[in-house]
Amino acid sequence: MTTSAAKTSKSSSVQQRERGNAFYKSATNIGPVIRLMRLDNALMCYRNALSCAATEDEEVSVMKNIGMTSWKLAGTYLESAPMKEAKNIRKYFKEALKYLSLAYVNRFCKILPWSLKLRGFWENCLKEATEWLATLDTKERVAGFSELLGYAPDCCLKANGYIQYSTLLFHEGLTAWQDGEYKECYRYMKECYFPIQEAERLSSQDLYIETEVNVLREDVNTHMCIAETIMARVSGDALLSKDLNEQETINSDTIWTVIDFYKQAAMLCRDKDLEQEAIAYSRLGRVFGKVLILPSRGKDYYKKAIQLALSMTPRTFHGVDWFMESTAFVEDFQKRLHKDEDEDKDKEAALKDMKEDVDKLSEMATNHGDLEFVKDIYKTWPPKAPGAKLNEKLSTKKLLLKAITHYHPDKVDKEVHGKNWFYFSGEITKHLNSKYTCYKGVE
Q: Which label site among 1, 216, 250, 275 has the fewest CB atoms less than 10 Å from its CB?
């Protein structure tokens, strides 16, 4: 058979592939510019061969050749201008992985040694691609991992690539967290889930990969909860500040929304970050103790924040705003509690000493009319406030109001007039207030 007859017996695909092979083999031991030109010519021939492939064998062979040529193009650009040609390097690594993977998936028409050799090619190509990605800046690295790993066949090597990808995202999230960019941190942590799940799927019970996946998942979950915690607390802070600055009176709906934000913050980081949990409880203490004026409930939340802080010993929080606020409120509450207890004892003792007067006052309040009652107390127990005199020309309502101001404990100097009179004047005021209530709304 003549040479021309042999050529015509070959399919168009084979002829184009052989032409491409000639360009490919000639692209060695030459400068990068000429090498790129010959590899581009080879790639063009291989693409033509793929478009007219008549059999599965021809198709798989051409796919492998396109992958190998693309890999060599990526390596040539990497060798000549790694920074300037990053776009082309990524493009050809993607093409290489894509076609080597397609050839491997459809390898069953080939003999086993051919298939094993092909597996080695795409594994080394993927390894080179991930090593190159490690030299790029973060944004390019993230984009590269996201794109290139999708073209690699499923294997442990690809699982390792996804672990690197997830680790990269995790560290970017940590950096954002340290910079106070909690929404960015949350975004990065959320993006970690896909590569972690893919690495787990591809682990094939590899102990190293499974261990890395478990560690990464736990770290990501923890920091995602912390980011959500801070976002909830910041939202509560902003809403509370806006309401207090713009509203003359407290909007109960807004306050309970703020409380929900703070409770959510405490719940999200429970057993994950004690400091963030403590801060959330201190905020709840502030709302209940200082905004809603419910000191007992405020004290309970502040106390919980302090207990969490102390549980982190030897770490200390002296000089930290939320811890100082919490301790100051609890100390003040205890002082006021002891003061109230002491006052209750003094009051009980004083009113016991004046039992006859107290009983007489109660009897007068019950049996006498309002006007008569006012006149009798002025006569029986004259007020000690400076200039306090009974003005019978006033209406009963105004007379009661004036008497309240004359007998109110705020007008009594305990040191000058004694404890007995101080607490007894409080009893007089209580009866006067009771009678005055009946006149509210009456002109």
A: 1
With cut-offs at 50, 70 and 90, classify the pLDDT of residue 440.
low
Compute the distance between CA of residue 103 and CA of residue 118 in angstroms, rounded to an integer: 8
- Gap between the Cα atoms of 321 and 307, Å rounded: 16
What does DSSP assign to residue 29? S
Q: What is the DSSP letter of 290?
A: I
The answer to whether 163 and 216 have CB atoms below 8 angstroms apart is yes
Enter the DSSP assignment of 81. Answer: -
Token pair, residue 234, equals 């910041």
Residue 231, CA atoms < 13 Å, CB-side half-sphere: 15
| Angle ∠(8,9,15) on CA atoms, nearest 5 | 65
Between CA 167 and CA 172 the distance in angstroms is 9
Q: How far apart are CA 229 and CA 277, in angstroms?
A: 8
Task: Find out whether 405 and 433 touch, Cβ atoms under 8 Å.
Answer: no
What's the mean pLDDT when you consider all of the chain? 88
What does the block give as tokens for 70?
A: 């693309």
Task: Kindly report the pTM of this predicted structure.
Answer: 0.63
251: which residues sit within 8 A by CB, 6+ positions away? 243
Residue 367 tokens read as: 């049996």
Mean pLDDT for 357-381 is 88
CA neighbor of 21 nearest in space, from 79, 74, 75, 66: 66
Q: Per-residue pLDDT averaged across 392-402, rounded?
A: 86
Higher pLDDT, 413 or 63: 63
- 235-335 folds as 1.25.40
SS3 at position 30:
coil
pLDDT band at 1 (very low <50, low <70, confident <90, very high): very low
Find out whether 397 and 439 touch, Cβ atoms under 8 Å. Answer: yes
pLDDT at 183 (0 to 100): 92
